[in-house]
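User: Hi! I have a protein structure encoded as tokens and I'd like to know what sequence might fold into it. I'm fairly new to this, so please keep things simple.
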């Protein structure tokens, strides 16, 4: 009777652990209790031979298989390193004392029972791996969303805010001598502020998950470049010319992604002119046909103000992420983007944009 009770102790402990897990649902300490059960099982296996107590061994192995799956599914990884190997070993060696044979026969029996133990671990590991992949996908989506938000703020809001700063600086200098110009500057500041608020509102609505194809949620495209260039000329004093042939403009109608990237590139280029060449007399935004797409050239002449003396220039620390991010976007479309010095201290940006037609319904550009 004593041998029966002692032989059933590991099975009873494993059953109690399973009942506790079902009641508490993902209880803490499950790996520790499983390790205790496995240790008891190994102890009775090592000290018992074929006899009345061996009747508990098969139910004990089945309960340990359930614990292996549960521990692998729910317990922290650092706790699995002890509990799972012990339980797998306990399941594999339990028939050893009952096998009537030599070392090879007992090894064969252990190898046979090793398979269901490993299978139980795999059953527990599969949903755990799916959870990890789901969490990784959610985190990647959140990271992409944060990156998109950062790029939108940089590409659009920073452009409008930099224009506000430049106009405010100009208004400060002319307020006493020409109040009329100061009032005009304030009107332009108001317009730039409204544009920045519109961009922020569009970004927030996208983050809120709006799925309605509202025109206000569509990123600006090539048709809005004329207004952008005119506004930049008025605010910066740099005479900027837009050369956009009608056939090129028409080709962007069904290539909205390329059009949005082109608009972002021009915004970034003009913002850089405002920051780094605030007294450049002339600039040009030019689109030309290229095999399979278009080439976008944004050039500016050298600033007449020395780097050490920029009256009314925009001073800001940091930055420098705009062009690399736009280069990634352009490469994602299959194009290229390069920038560098150009003719006597000027600067030129060249982007090659392939025009892949997208079958989306036309959306009216916001005015």
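Assistant: Happy to help. Inverse folding works backwards from shape to sequence: for each of the 367 positions I chose a residue that suits the local structure. Here it is:
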């Amino acid at each position: 009777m004593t041998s029966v009770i002692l032989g059933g102790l590991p099975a009873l402990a494993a059953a109690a652990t399973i009942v506790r897990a079902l009641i508490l649902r993902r209880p803490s300490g499950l790996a520790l209790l499983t390790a205790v059960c496995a240790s008891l099982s190994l102890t009775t296996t090592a000290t018992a031979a074929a006899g009345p107590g061996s009747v508990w061994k098969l139910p004990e192995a089945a309960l340990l298989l359930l614990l292996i799956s549960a521990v692998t599914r729910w317990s922290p990884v650092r706790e699995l390193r002890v509990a799972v190997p012990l339980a797998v070993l306990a399941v594999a060696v339990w028939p050893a004392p009952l096998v009537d044979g030599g070392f090879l026969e007992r090894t064969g029996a252990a190898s046979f029972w090793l398979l269901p133990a490993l299978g139980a671990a795999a059953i527990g590991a599969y949903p755990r791996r799916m959870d990890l992949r789901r969490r990784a996908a959610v985190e990647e989506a959140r990271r992409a969303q944060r990156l998109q938000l950062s790029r939108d703020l940089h590409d659009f809001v920073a452009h409008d805010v930099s224009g506000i700063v430049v106009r405010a600086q100009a208004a400060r200098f002319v307020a006493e001598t020409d109040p009329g110009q100061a009032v005009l500057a304030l009107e332009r500041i108001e317009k730039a502020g409204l544009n920045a608020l519109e961009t922020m509102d569009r970004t927030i609505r996208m983050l809120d998950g709006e799925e309605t194809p509202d025109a206000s949620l569509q990123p600006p495209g090539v048709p809005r470049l004329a207004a952008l260039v005119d506004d930049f000329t008025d605010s910066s004093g740099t005479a900027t010319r837009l050369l956009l042939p009608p056939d090129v403009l028409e080709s962007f109608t069904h290539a909205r992604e390329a059009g949005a990237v082109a608009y972002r590139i021009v915004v970034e280029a003009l913002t850089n002119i405002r920051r780094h060449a605030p007294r450049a007399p002339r600039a040009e935004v030019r689109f030309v046909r290229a095999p399979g797409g278009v080439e976008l050239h944004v050039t500016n002449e050298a600033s007449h103000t020395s780097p050490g003396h920029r009256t009314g220039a925009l001073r800001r620390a940091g930055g420098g992420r705009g062009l690399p991010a736009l280069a990634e976007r352009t490469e994602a479309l299959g194009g290229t983007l390069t920038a560098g010095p150009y003719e006597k201290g000027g600067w030129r940006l060249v982007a090659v944009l392939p025009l892949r037609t997208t079958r989306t319904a036309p959306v009216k550009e916001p005015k």
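A useful reference point when you look it over: Residues 103-174 form the longest helix (72 residues). Feel free to ask if any position seems puzzling.
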